[in-house]
Amino acid sequence: MIDTYKRLMNLEEPPPAKKAKGFFTDTSLCIGCKACEVACKQWNQLPADGFAITGNSYDNTGHLGATTWRHVQFIEQAKANGTRQEQRWLMMSDVCKHCANAACLEACPTGALIRTEYDTVYVQQDICNGCGFCVPACPFGVIDRAPKHGQFEAGTAHKCTLCYDRLKDDMTPACAKSCPTASIQFGDVDELRARARQRLGELRERGESKARLYGMPEGKEAVEVGPLHAFFLLLDEPKAYNLPEVPRLPRKTMAQRYGWSAAVGVGFALIGALVFGGRR
Amino acid sequence: MISNLLSARQNLPPPLTGEGGGGGQGYYDYPVVRRPVWTWEVPTYFWLGGMAAGAYVTASLAQNFGSADDRRAAAGGYYVAAAALMPCAPLLIADLGRPDRFHHMLRIFKPLSPMNLGAWTLTAFTPVAFARGASHAASTGLLRGPLVALARLVPNRLAELAGSVLGLTLAGYSGVLLAATNIPLWAKSKLLGGLFMASALSSGSAAVTLQAARRGVPDATLHRLATLESAASLGEMALVTGYLVQSGKTARPLTTGRFAAPFWLGAVGAGTLLPLVLHLFARRRNGRGLRSLSTAAAVCSVAGSLALRWTIFEAGKDSSRDQEASFDLSGTSDSAG
């Protein structure tokens, strides 16, 4: 019966699970060259977003979006009359976090958003109908819908695929491949986590007291969305990088919200029965 | 080419203005979350779908618990429900990025996603409401021709029960859908689902009154409908108060600025306060006076319901730009409290 259903629906067996792949983005090594942004655009054939000057340091990209899957932030921490150590220029290449409990994936009503065999989150372009629910669901503001009448994959949702096509051929994602300082490291998530812990230890020893990891299983940020498969070594509080301290997973509070909704509905039905009642 | 570049520029966040980077809080004044891409079709659908559901439930309550007059008067609610449901699916489809793939909503059943639950509920509720409406039309002689035989086959009791459950789901999921995001204005309070439910029920029962008052029904029935509407409006008022209290500073894009007037005067004033006052005046009146007051209250309630959905929806888009509210939502704001 199930076999017949699968044959009729043309369902394939899912590919066998592979080791979880991800990114470790070590912002202490980032020099802000934006090679990752360019390599990502080239490999994934994403159109340019136009030339605009934001006036905010060298960040003229602004944010991640439907056609921008890597975004280098330039955080200028300058204090008037501060010491040399207090003048900092932090750089960070932001990307989709490929959350273990992804809000976008849970929101998706069509099943277009899936978890791949590499434990990454991927939008199937032939399924997505552009309902737009994943866009406000993401706590990091990553995924976006391409404009309805645009030139590029119009009307569907887009974000980093962790170069799913390259992974299939055992290749490194374009951004990590192009990174000249190994700020973006690609590999098995387990191995990357061990490497990140070691690197954090080194930096702490050197006196980088504010250095921290963001997206590790033991972190506060993993409480709701789970460990991030693209995680970061930061040199300041997450907020400085526009990262939420405890990214929210909407599912966690949904039952309570449905509860209030149901209580109002049942209350109305009871009052209605009383108001009309006894007059038959 | 040039116009492409200019339009791309508009996609960037506004340049930094005033004090540097929001007092060292986040990354310049850039938003943490993306701006919702939905347009006017969505709040319009929430309004119409909610009203349809409220009217259907009110009609079914009168049908099962009311007097013969109540039943005759309220049965018009089935027509209201069917009429309000007609534009719903087209509105939702028009809002999709790929309208040609609307049926992908139904390729899986995934109630965890409020969007999927809503699509299934609308798909199920629409034919039930139409069938119950057709059955009533057949019984009053409004429906003629070969369809009458078919309409007489509709199991009314079952349609009323199933339709009420589906209707309440339709009225109740929309606020939860908005709340199941990371947009501060939608997600901060626990009560948005309940508020939209109350708004749906008050506007739906008002729509039943509207058609009943026009057709001239006994005063006792109008009084009973007014009591039910008032209960819904009172609930709506309590919920909107709770919603604003729980939202705190996050509600600023709604309560101040460009949406302040439509929200306070339209959603709160016309939507809840005015109908309550009008119903209070109508309590001791009969005949034409009662009908005029009931009609006025119902029009206010229906219009206020649209104002509520529209202002909360649009102000939510502005709220997505509120970096401080985003940090507050994820429990990090230094300025909270």
Q: Termini of chain B, distance in Å?
A: 49 Å
Average predicted confidence as pLDDT of chain B: 91
Largest interface: A-B, 80 and 91 residues
How many strands, what sense, and barrel or not for the largest sheet of chain B? none
For the CA atoms, what is the radius of gyration of chain A?
A: 23 Å
Overall number of domains of chain B: 1
Number of strands of chain A: 10
Alpha-carbon distance between the two ends of chain A? 51 Å
- What would you say the CATH architecture of chain A is? 2-Layer Sandwich
Main beta-sheet strand count, sense and barrel state of chain A: 4 strands, mixed
Q: Strand arrangement, largest sheet of chain A? A: 8-1-10-9
Mean pLDDT of chain A: 94
From the 3D structure, determine the CATH topology of chain B: Formate dehydrogenase/DMSO reductase fold
The class by helix and strand makeup of chain A works out as alpha+beta
For the record, what CATH class of chain B applies?
Answer: Mainly Alpha
Overall geometry of chain B comes to globular
Number of continuous helical runs of chain A: 9
Structural write-up:
The complex is a heterodimer of chains A (280) and B (337). Chain A is α+β, with helices and mostly antiparallel strands and 280 residues long. Chain A has a single domain (16-254), classed as Alpha-Beta Plaits. Helix content of chain A is 29%, strand content 16%. Chain A is built from nine helices and ten strands. Chain A has helices at residues 2-8, 35-44, 103-107, 134-137, 164-168, 174-178, 189-205, 222-225, 254-276; strands spanning 21-26, 70-77, 88-95, 113-115, 121-123, 144-145, 157-158, 184-188, 212-214, 230-234. In chain A, the strands form four sheets. Chain A has a four-stranded mixed beta sheet with strand order 8-1-10-9. In chain A, strands 2-3 form a two-stranded antiparallel ribbon. Chain A has a two-stranded antiparallel sheet with strand order 4-5. Chain A is globular. The termini of chain A are far apart. Chain B has 337 residues and is an all-alpha fold. Chain B has a single domain (36-329), classed as Formate dehydrogenase/DMSO reductase fold, CATH 1.20.1630. In chain B, 72% of the residues lie in helices and 0% in strands. Chain B contains 16 helices and no strands. Chain B has helices spanning 2-9, 21-24, 41-65, 68-74, 76-85, 88-95, 114-140, 147-152, 156-179, 184-187, 192-215, 219-247, 252-255, 260-282, 287-319, 323-329. In chain B, helix 3 (41-65) packs antiparallel against helix 4 (68-74). The longest helix of chain B has 33 residues, at 287-319. Chain B is globular and about 65 Å long. The relative contact order of chain B is 0.14. At the A-B interface, helix 3, helix 4, strand 6 and helix 9 of A face helix 1, helix 3, helix 7, helix 9 and helix 11 of B.
